[in-house]
Design goal:
The chain is α+β, with helices and mostly antiparallel strands. Helix content is 36%, strand content 38%. The protein starts with 5 loop residues before the first strand and ends with a helix. InterPro entries: RRF_sf.
Length: 56
């Protein structure tokens, strides 16, 4: 279901599932665990921008 979500990694777009594990915690919460710790800030910014688009 999330396979179509792309993120930019070093100026190259890759599928989110290539750089992180996404799981469902409950009906309103997703958990995103990066394979590499330094990528977490990029994933956080992605989630924040996505939230801002949906909340407007």
């Amino acid at each position: 279901m999330l396979d179509h979500i792309m993120v930019e990694n070093a100026s190259v777009k890759v599928a989110l599932n290539r750089i992180a594990v996404v799981s469902v915690l409950d009906a309103h919460t997703l958990s995103v665990m990066s394979y590499e710790a330094w990528r977490l800030i990029h994933l956080f910014l992605l989630a924040l921008s996505s939230y801002m688009q949906w909340s407007c």
